[in-house]
Amino acid sequence: MADSQLQEIAKLADLAEAGVNSEGGAGADITWHSASHTDAGRVRHTNEDAFLDSEEQRLWAVADGMGAHSRGDYASSAVVAQLRAFPRQNSVLANLKDMETRLQVAHEKCRTAFRKHRPGTTVAAMHAHGNYCFLLWAGDSRIYRLRDSELQQLTQDHSMAQEKFSRGELTEQEMESHQSAHVLTRSVGAHRNLRLEMHYSPVQAGDRYLLCSDGLYNPVEFGEICAVMGQGSPEEACKSLVDLALEGGGPDNITVVIVDARQSG
After folding, report:
1. How many angstroms from the chain centroid is the CA of residue 52?
2. What is the distance of C-alpha 77 from the center of its chain?
């Protein structure tokens, strides 16, 4: 990331540290519970998605490998392997820098692993620290938050269609179905340079987060995701969402990670 982005991360880290260290801080009252599920879908023969579901590390991620014959499965697995070895530290800034470094390592592995191919993958990762969660992503895998029955998309796709929408060239409805929606402007491996975007979100007890590949949100409407996501345990919600995508034709690999922020005690 650029120095300006790192400075911004440092400010956010200070906020999070204050929340963790303050007496009776909200972060101390939050416990995390998660579940995950993946399916190859009804069309593709292999599953190039990979995911990390680690309550212990307070780290969750989804990676959607790109381009079957270009070894997208290698790229998504490389991302998850790097994040799986993440050692959670007390410093938010140290954690975020470590995550960035690990994703850069995965990026370089993808760039040099094969002579004829440049395997690529999206990544959407969430790290919880105290009463904040920090998001790092590249590509069009998404992170949503359900709070008080209202679903909000916390990430913004890195796609040509999204850029056209931002410039006012497409409406939101046109953007969803535009042919350039699948043309990614950022990724791990496939592009020469890795450009990650970062965001943070304050956490409230009762929040439910969804990390997913586009195999979920393309065949399933936003309202359906909202309705089903809030039902039952994380395990039940995961299964129901994957079933919805399969009922919608399952045209792509489907990966879902559900993360609950619960009041402890």
Report:
1. 10
2. 14
